[in-house]
Specification:
By secondary structure, the chain is α+β, with helices and mostly antiparallel strands. It has three domains: 43 residues; 119 residues, 3-Layer(aba) Sandwich (D-Maltodextrin-Binding Protein, domain 2); 78 residues, 2-Layer Sandwich (Alpha-Beta Plaits). The protein has seven helices and nine strands; from the N terminus they run H-H-H-E-H-E-H-E-E-E-E-H-E-E-H-E. It has a five-stranded mixed beta sheet with strand order 2-1-3-5-4. Strands 7-8-6-9 form a four-stranded antiparallel beta sheet.
Length: 290
């Protein structure tokens, strides 16, 4: 079809020029990231900032136009941001892979990039221990479920919570994993201070010394303006541990937690802050049909 050869050649040449321009910008971005890393060296400034990453992704999606899939754009930027973290500090991920479910490795790679060390373990305790001992930067565990026989979140409750990693992200950021396990979801844990992004979820564990109903827990949180999106309760010697996932950013020193402890609606003996994470995208925002 000679009549289209010339316009095709012109358009392909334009794509080649655009690819070079994109590559040049990526090289420039890498140089800026390395300069940031040099400025941060020796300071307490965090390298890994899930909150800032989430806000950047939301900004990119909000300004996006055209027919290029927004979900693919998010995947590209996740890879860029993960590689940028790796330019500043070695990034290593320990992934819990329950028997018969390999999708958690895919979740980890999609979020934390193709570059960097990744190791798999069969139990949540192993991956949490790998990060707690600073052998790995990040742990990826399955998202909490009422069907968990031995929930990993109980392992984050201790006399010295500061020695344990915190929840910092939920995977996948696209809101749906796709492939053979579209409902697969994980949590990332690290020694990183959560930052509010304007749309967040927080996790706390409430220790109580007596039986309490789900309605009582929901009412105690609702009484201080906190809505729950998930709750689990497990018996422990001398009482119960209640996991509460909150539809808001809640810091460890949030006065609302103190009000729950002092309000008298629950027999609270302690409240443990497990972390916070930016809410993933709604799949429909990215043009994904679950």
């Amino acid at each position: 079809m000679p009549q289209i050869d010339e316009p095709l050649a012109r358009l392909r040449g334009e794509i080649d020029a655009l690819d070079d321009a994109i590559h040049d910008l990526i090289v420039r971005r890498g140089a800026v990231v390395e300069e940031i890393g040099r400025l941060k060296a020796g300071s307490d400034a965090p390298i890994f900032r899930p909150g800032r990453e989430a806000k950047l992704l939301r900004h990119i999606v909000a300004r996006h136009t055209g027919s290029f899939p927004a979900a693919a754009l998010v995947r590209i930027w996740r890879e860029l941001m993960a590689a940028s973290v790796g330019l500043q500090t070695p990034l290593s991920v320990a992934v819990c892979v329950p028997a018969g479910e390999t999708g958690y490795c895919q979740l980890a790679r999609a979020h934390f990039g193709t570059v960097g060390r990744l190791a798999t373990y069969t139990s949540p305790g192993e991956v949490i221990g790998a990060v707690a001992s600073h052998r790995f930067t990040i742990a990826v565990v399955p998202a909490p479920s009422l069907e968990d026989a031995d929930p990993w979140w109980r392992m984050l409750v201790g006399d010295d919570d500061a020695r344990l990693p915190r929840v910092v992200a939920r995977l996948p950021v696209t809101g749906v994993a796709g492939g053979p396990s579209p409902d697969l979801a994980g949590m990332a844990l690290a020694f990183t201070e959560p930052e509010p992004t304007g749309d967040d979820r927080s996790l706390v564990v409430v220790e109580v010394d007596d039986e309490v109903s789900r309605a009582a827990v929901t009412g105690a949180f609702g009484g201080v303006g906190l809505a729950l999106v998930f709750m689990d309760s497990r018996a422990e010697p001398g009482g119960r541990l209640i996991l509460a996932e909150i539809a808001d950013f809640v810091a460890a020193d949030d006065p609302r937690l103190a009000k729950i402890a002092a309000g008298g609606r629950l027999p609270v003996t302690a409240i443990h802050h497990l972390g916070a994470y930016p809410a993933p995208f709604e799949p429909s925002v990215l043009g994904i049909t679950p």
